[in-house]
Amino acid sequence: MKFSARSLFANALSGHQNWPEQFPNKEPKKEYDVVIVGAGGHGLGAAYYLANKYGITNVAVVEKGWLGGGNTGRNTTIIRSNYLFDESAGIYDHAVDLWDGLSQELNYNVMFSKRGVLMLAHNVHDVQSFQRHVHANRLNGVDNKWLSPEECQKVVPILDISQNRRFPVMGGAFQQRAGVARHDSVAWGYARAASKLGVDIIQQCKVIGIRRGADGAVEGVETEKGYIGAKKIGVSAAGNSSVVMDMAGLRFPLESYPLQALVSEPVKPIVPCVIMSNAVHAYISQSDKGELVIGAGTDQYTSYSQRGALHLVEHNIMSICEIFPIFKRMRMLRNWGGIVDVTPDRSPIVGKTPVPGLYVNCGWGTGGFKATPGAADMLAYTIAHDAPHKINAPFNLDRFVGGRLIDEAAAAAVAH
Amino acid sequence: MMLIHCPYCDEKRPEIEFAYAGEAHIARPDAAEQQEMSDAQWSEFLFIRDNKRGEHCERWWHANGCNMFFNAVRNTVTDKFVKTYKMGQKRPSASQISKWNEGGNV
Question: Thinking of the domain B3-26+52-102, which architecture would CATH place it in?
Answer without folding.
Answer: 2-Layer Sandwich (3.30)
